């Protein structure tokens, strides 16, 4: 079967070149200086070419083994023999010439044109170029004519283990939670080897840990790093430095290796409770400290960090739970104790509190390890301070009648010094609240007296401020508001609410209501106003009018008869007495004016004046006045017109003779200038009659004017 296959291959290949190949010792286990060839007609096994074998070879046709191998990184004193080309057409004479072309021909690879030996002239690196494609041809040395078609073959650079593994992404950094179980994934590293991964074990890597045991382990083939020790505590050691090695040749001796470092940091988990630095804290505070002011800080330390170290504080026991409060400082995680309510040294001098600090975020995996909280005792001592006087009441309300006598006591305020020394107190009125100085106060006992009369109807409330000052320390001052209400007394008589004027129709009927009047009283009785109305004693039997009290505290005026006439009497005056129900009662007399008017049949008032009787029908007094004014105006216009016409027809100068200015003589003599002017009186020429005396003129405005009658 092998012989049949060889014949088929020989019939298929047309080139008659036999490749003499230098067999690599690392592959074929043969000496470096020996050449091997696959003879035509033989099997795939390699045999040494001998003279006897040449005689036995079939000369019918040769075939080509189209691959050669050369060892990389070979550096000997002489060029390395890669292989030999030979053709069956070569009888051993020197007429055949071998030609080589293709990748690196003539530079990297050189052929002996007589023997066909191919040599590598340079040191080759498989990682730079793994194979070269060349073309060989046999030609006639004399004519250079091809003796057969060219044949293509490949020279492969054979890999050797000349590259160590490299960690391209190193050094590495990784994290893993503290207290993790054994086998917890940490990270994965990767190394690369530039050698041929297909050929041999040059690129087969195995990973191991050089430093970092027994805390971590690594999978030899996957390079996954895991925890190897349980319960690693961050608070004991936070960072680990691990050295990882990658070795080729499957980790066997003689392989190359590379290393990298992995810095592994343990991340925090809440596995530690807060702990107070001391079990007892002492603080002191002045009794006059402002509300909300911090008086001290407590600190519960937590070995954890970040969110796991956050704690909240609370007061769980003590006699000052309602007096003090504790809050957490977000920056320092301190517990700040503040005052919630006022302190009083004289009442209580010390307090004892029990505070608790507890973690905010608790990890349920470690809750069985114990309570994540701690307690401490806080003792607070209150110190005495010089406090201002304290009034017996925060506000005072006093009442006084408006008719109270001057210097009468209307009330009293009291205050005391809360300090142990108990300084005497002096009282005064803040005059900015009592500008009219209506009140005084006794500086010793705080009694408030009346200084000026009061009037409830003018000012019902007075608000003043009383000042209490310590005599030993005038800077200690307190103030209290005092509201004084002025109580009413019946000191005002009632009166009509407004000036009433009633109108009575001439055609009115007996018993008809003429007017309803109401009264007002400035006083303010507790049960409201109740007024009594009556006529004067001498008017009780009044023949014309009567009064009637209404349920709504008003009064109705009624007519006793009809037939009132304006011509007979135009106006009636009706005095009315108004009394209140106070003690003592107050009264006043108000007069109601009743005017008789002309009304329509429906009772609508049309006119209330007597002149209406004498006026023309349909004309009122206003219309008559307007007509009279127009007549007077027309008369004035006519008089003015006549006067102006007379003035226009009269001459300017009252004289019967002719005006001397009309007697003008013309002559041609030259004038004498100023001499002629001085020789004659110009005024005489203008008014010859002016010599004899004054003559009135009508072309100018006289000094005195007379209005026409």
UniProtKB/TrEMBL annotation:
InterPro entries in alphabetical order: Cadherin (IPR039808), Cadherin-like_dom (IPR002126), Cadherin-like_sf (IPR015919), Cadherin_CS (IPR020894)
Topology with respect to the bilayer: Single-pass type I membrane protein
Residue intervals of the Cadherin domain: 87-167, 168-276, 277-391, 392-496, 496-618
Transmembrane feature ranges: 613-642
Keyword Isomerase among record annotations: no
Protein name: Cadherin-8
One GO cellular component, as annotated: axon terminus
Signal peptide limits: none
Species for this entry: Aptenodytes forsteri
UniProt KW Transmembrane keyword: yes
One matching Pfam family: Cadherin
UniProt-annotated location(s): Cell membrane
Gene Ontology terms, MF aspect: beta-catenin binding; cadherin binding; calcium ion binding
Keywords for the protein's UniProt record, in alphabetical order: Calcium, Cell adhesion, Cell membrane, Cleavage on pair of basic residues, Glycoprotein, Membrane, Metal-binding, Repeat, Signal, Transmembrane, Transmembrane helix
Gene Ontology biological process terms, A to Z: adherens junction organization; calcium-dependent cell-cell adhesion via plasma membrane cell adhesion molecules; cell migration; cell morphogenesis; cell-cell adhesion mediated by cadherin; cell-cell junction assembly; homophilic cell adhesion via plasma membrane adhesion molecules
PANTHER family found in the cross-reference section: CADHERIN-23, CADHERIN-8
Entries under CDD domains matching the protein: Cadherin_repeat
């Amino acid at each position: 079967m092998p012989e049949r296959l060889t014949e088929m291959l020989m019939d298929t290949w047309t080139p008659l070149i036999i490749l003499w190949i230098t067999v690599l010792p690392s592959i074929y286990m043969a000496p470096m200086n020996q050449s091997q060839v696959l003879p035509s007609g033989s099997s795939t096994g390699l045999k040494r070419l001998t003279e006897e074998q040449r005689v036995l070879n079939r000369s019918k046709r040769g075939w080509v083994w189209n691959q050669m191998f050369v060892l990389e990184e070979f550096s000997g004193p002489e060029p390395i023999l890669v292989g030999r080309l030979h053709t069956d057409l070569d009888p051993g004479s020197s007429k055949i010439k071998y030609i080589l072309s293709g990748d690196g021909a003539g530079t990297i690879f050189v052929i002996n044109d007589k023997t066909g030996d191919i040599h590598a002239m340079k040191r080759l690196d498989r990682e730079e170029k793994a194979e070269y494609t060349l073309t060989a041809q046999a030609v006639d040395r004399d004519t250079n004519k091809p003796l057969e078609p060219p044949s293509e073959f490949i020279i492969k650079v054979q890999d050797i283990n000349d590259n160590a593994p490299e960690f391209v992404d190193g050094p590495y950094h990784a994290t893993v939670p503290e207290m993790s179980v054994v086998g917890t994934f940490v990270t994965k590293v990767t190394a690369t080897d530039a050698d041929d991964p297909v050929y041999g074990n040059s690129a087969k890597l195995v990973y191991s840990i050089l430093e970092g045991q027994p805390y971590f382990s690594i999978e030899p083939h996957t390079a996954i790093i895991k925890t190897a020790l349980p319960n690693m505590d961050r608070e004991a050691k936070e960072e680990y430095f691990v050295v990882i090695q990658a070795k080729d040749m499957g980790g066997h001796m003689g392989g190359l290796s590379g290393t990298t470092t992995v810095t592994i940091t343990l991340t925090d988990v809440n596995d530690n409770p807060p702990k107070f630095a001391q079990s007892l804290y002492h603080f002191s505070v002045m009794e006059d400290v402002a509300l909300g002011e911090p008086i001290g800080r407590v600190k519960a330390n937590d070995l954890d960090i970040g969110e796991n170290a956050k704690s909240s504080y609370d007061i769980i026991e003590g006699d000052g739970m309602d007096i003090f409060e504790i809050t957490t400082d977000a920056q320092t995680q301190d517990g700040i104790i503040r005052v919630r309510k006022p302190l009083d040294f004289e009442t209580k001098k010390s307090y004892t509190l029990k505070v608790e600090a507890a973690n905010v975020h608790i990890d349920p995996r470690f809750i069985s390890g114990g309570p994540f909280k701690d307690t401490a005792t806080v003792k607070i001592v209150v110190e005495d301070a010089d406090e201002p006087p304290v009034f017996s009441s925060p506000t005072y309300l006093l009442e006084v009648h408006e008719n109270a006598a001057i210097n009468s006591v209307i009330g009293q305020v009291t205050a005391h010094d809360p300090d142990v020394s108990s300084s005497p107190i002096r009282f005064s009125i803040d005059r900015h609240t009592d500008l009219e100085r209506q009140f005084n106060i006794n500086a010793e006992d705080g009694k408030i007296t009346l200084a000026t009369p009061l009037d409830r109807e003018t000012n019902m409330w007075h608000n003043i401020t009383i000042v209490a000052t310590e005599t030993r320390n005038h800077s200690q001052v307190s103030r209290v508001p005092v509201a004084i209400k002025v109580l009413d007394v019946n000191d005002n008589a009632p009166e009509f609410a407004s000036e009433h004027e009633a109108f009575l129709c001439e055609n009115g009927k007996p018993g008809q209501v003429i007017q309803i009047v109401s009264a007002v009283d400035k006083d303010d009785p507790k049960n409201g106003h109740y007024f009594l109305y009556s006529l004067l004693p001498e008017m009780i039997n009044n023949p014309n009018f009567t009064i009637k009290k209404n349920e709504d505290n008003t009064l109705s005026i009624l007519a006793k008869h009809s037939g009132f006439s304006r011509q007979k009497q135009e106006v009636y005056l009706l005095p009315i007495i108004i009394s209140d129900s106070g003690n003592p009662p107050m009264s006043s007399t108000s007069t109601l004016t009743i005017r008789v008017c002309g009304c329509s049949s429906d009772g609508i008032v049309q006119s209330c004046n007597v002149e209406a009787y004498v006026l023309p029908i349909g004309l009122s007094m206003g219309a008559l006045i307007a007509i009279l004014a127009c007549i007077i105006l027309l008369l004035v216009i006519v008089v003015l017109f006549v006067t102006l016409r007379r003035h226009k027809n009269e001459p300017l100068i009252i004289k019967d003779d002719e005006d001397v200015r009309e007697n003008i003589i013309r002559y041609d003599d030259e004038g004498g200038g100023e001499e002629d002017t001085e020789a004659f009186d110009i005024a005489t020429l203008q008014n010859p009659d002016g010599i004899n005396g004054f003559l009135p003129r009508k072309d100018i405005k006289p000094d005195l004017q007379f209005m026409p009658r």
